[in-house]
Amino acid sequence: MRIVLDRPRCEGHGLCEEAAPRLMHLDDEGELVLDREEVDGPDAALARAAARVCPVAALRVA
Ligand code: SF4
Questions:
Q1: Which of the listed residues 25, 56, 61 should we mutate to test ligand 1's pocket, taking the one with most ligand atoms within 8 A of CB?
Q2: Which ranges in the chain belong to alpha helices (H)?
Q3: Membrane-crossing residues (predicted)?
C-alpha cells in the first residue's frame, strides 16, 4: 500500500506525525516529509491512523 499526500491541502498540523512518527515527520519549516511511502502490515495500519486524524484530509492510503 502507498501513502499519498495532497501537499497543497496539508496545513502542517502534525497530528499525522503523532499518529505515525516512524512514517512521517514535519521538517524545520513545517513541511510534512514522508519517510516511507510504501507500507504494509502494521505500518499500513499506522498510515491509515495518520490519515484518519488529519483534520484536512490531506493523507490517504491507496
Ligand atoms: S495532519 Fe494533515 S495537515 Fe497536518 S501535517 Fe499531517 S497531513 Fe498535513
A1: 56
A2: 15-19, 41-53
A3: none
